[in-house]
Amino acid sequence: MNKTLVATALAAIFLAPTVSAIEIYKDDKNAVEIGGFIDVRVINTQGETEVVNGASRINFGFSRELTHGWNAFAKLEWGVNPVGSSDIVYNNRFESVQDEFFYNRLGYAGISNDEYGTISIGKQWGAWYDVVYNTNYGFVWDGNAAGVYTFNKDDGAVNGVGRGDKLVQYRNAFGDVSFAVQAQLKNSSFYTCDIEDITEEACEARWNQGEADAQQVTYNYTYGGAVTYNATDMLSLMAGINRGEFDIDYGNGAQKTAVDLIYGAGITWGNFDSNGFYAAANVNKQENHDTDNIGRLIKDAYGVETLVSYKFDNGLRPFISYNLLDAGKDYVIQPNFNADPNDVFKRQFVVAGLHFVWDPSTVLYVEARKDFSDFTSANKEQEARMSLSEDDGIAIGIRYSL
Description:
The protein is mainly β. The protein is built from 5 helices and 19 strands. The protein has a single domain, classed as Beta Barrel (Porin), CATH 2.40.160.
């Protein structure tokens, strides 16, 4: 197997849109690089206009040559909030605000070999992201239908599909085919109740009292894999799957197992950062994999994401993307005492944008979102809460990469 393909497989571990880094140290054996970007923007959405952080980050990459063709590597990445906390939270996470100046995004280490591939351990991009990253290039409203940013647009850490926690991952490439397999080795349990504004401690007390609306949920290991076929220099095809299980014990003694499953495929033409035409799409089918906008587990849904762009020689890059996550009605796992069988969940929006790539490390941009979602419910208060985080908007900003 040639070293170029091994490098491609290893690069997939560091997979994230528009990666840049500067080498700050190198000797005969070791190398250190620093990367990341500062992204700040003005956004108008949800009836307000503010200056906000655009998922700014800083990272350090380490590599070391070992004996017999082996290499060791590590990466640490933190999110950075240069503008302070904001009341509007829209970038992958509408409900949780990172108040800290630094917060953990990635942290892993591993070894690689031209013949035997790579193995890495830690918080890293999941194998599922290989399938759907190709539409995740919008700066402001990136993909929220591909099953990556699960549990109310968080980072996919819980089920290992985004920046997964506690992953063990293996990658390799043979000819034009590369693949990744992983296991998420964790132990977690929590209490949840079908009651709004209740603490976990109070919910646990209801579970101990035998209340039917209280549940103890155990969600441990997950497993996933993906394969990529580079059919030509321009065309790539991807497919993958990720699976976990919830064991649910109700306060009244009932038990249930819910399988968290997502599978799907993607297709890419071109390179988003290169001049010329770029197009990408992915589709997925999921069960018990994500939550709606007020935290209720979705029984089943399907997602579609598409993105088309063209980068001109003068650095202008217009694009348009479409996102759909459709669970239909009666989508909430039962029993759930806050669920109406006629509740509808259909997240749907279009984003159009114009990037001016002044140079590869400096991008000025404007992006606008038009929402077409449907969150119909007989409970109008819940309907309003569901709709709040899915709104039209427009933003202008600058991304300065290291």
